[in-house]
């Protein structure tokens, strides 16, 4: 089976490539001119890379015609919420144009290809207490442009399924983390700061934003296993939550990380890290996906935090 991963050089993309190779799939992926291939260098030449800008229609059509994938995992996106406030149009444009080009290229090529769309728990946005744990039927009340872009990707997937009968499944993935997580995201940002403090590279002050928000974290390695099962077993046209089913405050997550270090660290709020609006609490109900595939998360949160710190310690060794 030929799998194509958009965003293969990124965090989830690189873990997914490893997972699919371990399941005897042929793996290809799209890279941008500006992408670093650091996270997948160890997988070359087993994975095939295609230079392709998803916002360039001709690029995408040519890539799909060349690869003729049996399945596509569409992960590439502008995924950092704060950037979506700074550049709302760029976020919406990148995320929507890229996906439309992909859907159109597959449709026009007339190939039998399953698609998985990586959407997001951010689509739920302002969740009311009675909505927790969040089911796929919970109303969508987006709080940032990124969330709007993901709702649009989600509904485009539904529309192409209905209009053309394409096999498209949509995952509303809650926060996920682990080794290689981009340093702008909270878990990696804090882990990196801790390691910099351990190495004496910065004073022992760790800068934070809103520590009150609660997030439902899953290990990236559990998430990519879910993605493979989803494309194999899920019903097209449907949307599925991928979550752990519990949440913790960002402050608790920080305490876990700090407890795994022997350094003495003081915490300081950096007002620049606060957002115009922050989703207060996300807890996902993943029972729909569990009933379909048998999946449940396996890696304990403390292990994920330990592995994330080990990743940053290795980066600074
Ligand atoms: C599911 C969803 O998951 C991710 O979106 P996110 O939840 O915005 O992720 P994050 O790691 O940037 O923030 C998590 C929380 O942590 C708070 N927070 C406190 N202090 C800092 C801080 O210093 N940095 C950051 N980044 N956040 C901080 C921040 O205010 C927020 O409440 C993306 O993968 C997105 O693509 C996606 O789809």
Automatic annotation (TrEMBL):
<dbReference type="Pfam" id="PF16363">
    <property type="entry name" value="GDP_Man_Dehyd"/>
</dbReference>
<protein>
    <recommendedName>
        <fullName>GDP-mannose 4,6-dehydratase</fullName>
        <ecNumber>4.2.1.47</ecNumber>
    </recommendedName>
</protein>
<dbReference type="GO" id="GO:0008446">
    <property type="term" value="F:GDP-mannose 4,6-dehydratase activity"/>
</dbReference>
<dbReference type="InterPro" id="IPR036291">
    <property type="entry name" value="NAD(P)-bd_dom_sf"/>
</dbReference>
<comment type="function">
    <text>Catalyzes the conversion of GDP-D-mannose to GDP-4-dehydro-6-deoxy-D-mannose.</text>
</comment>
<dbReference type="InterPro" id="IPR006368">
    <property type="entry name" value="GDP_Man_deHydtase"/>
</dbReference>
<keyword id="KW-0456">Lyase</keyword>
<dbReference type="InterPro" id="IPR016040">
    <property type="entry name" value="NAD(P)-bd_dom"/>
</dbReference>
<comment type="similarity">
    <text>Belongs to the NAD(P)-dependent epimerase/dehydratase family. GDP-mannose 4,6-dehydratase subfamily.</text>
</comment>
<dbReference type="GO" id="GO:0042351">
    <property type="term" value="P:'de novo' GDP-L-fucose biosynthetic process"/>
</dbReference>
<feature type="domain" description="NAD(P)-binding">
    <location>
        <begin position="4"/>
        <end position="307"/>
    </location>
</feature>
């Amino acid at each position: 089976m030929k799998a194509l991963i958009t965003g293969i050089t990124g965090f989830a993309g690189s873990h997914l490539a490893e997972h699919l190779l371990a399941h005897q799939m042929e793996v290809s992926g799209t890279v941008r001119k500006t992408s670093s291939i650091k996270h997948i260098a160890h997988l070359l030449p087993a994975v095939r890379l295609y230079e392709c800008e998803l916002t360039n229609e001709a690029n995408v059509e040519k890539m799909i015609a060349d690869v003729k994938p049996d399945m596509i995992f569409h992960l590439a996106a502008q995924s950092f919420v704060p950037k979506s406030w700074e550049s709302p149009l760029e976020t919406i444009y990148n995320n929507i144009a890229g996906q439309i080009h992909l859907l159109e290229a597959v449709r026009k090529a007339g190939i039998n290809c399953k698609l998985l769309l990586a959407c997001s728990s951010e689509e739920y946005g302002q969740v009311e207490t009675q909505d927790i744990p969040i089911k796929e039927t919970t109303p969508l009340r987006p709080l940032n442009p990124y969330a709007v872009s993901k709702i649009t990707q989600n509904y485009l997937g539904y529309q192409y399924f209905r209009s053309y009968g394409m096999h498209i499944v949509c995952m509303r993935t809650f926060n996920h983390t682990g080794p290689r997580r981009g340093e702008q995201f909270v878990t990696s940002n804090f882990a990196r700061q801790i390691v910099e403090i351990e190495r004496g590279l910065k004073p022992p002050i760790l800068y934070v934003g809103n520590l009150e928000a609660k997030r439902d974290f899953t290990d990236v390695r559990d998430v990519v296993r879910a993605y493979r099962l989803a494309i194999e077993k899920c019903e097209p046209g449907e949307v599925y939550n991928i979550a752990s089913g519990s949440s913790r405050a960002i402050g608790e997550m920080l305490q876990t990380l700090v407890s795994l270090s022997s350094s003495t660290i003081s915490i300081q709020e950096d007002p620049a890290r606060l957002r115009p609006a922050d989703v207060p609490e996300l807890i996902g109900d993943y029972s729909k996906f569990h009933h379909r595939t048998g999946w449940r998360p396996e890696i304990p949160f403390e292990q994920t935090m330990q592995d994330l710190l080990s990743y940053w310690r290795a980066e600074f060794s």
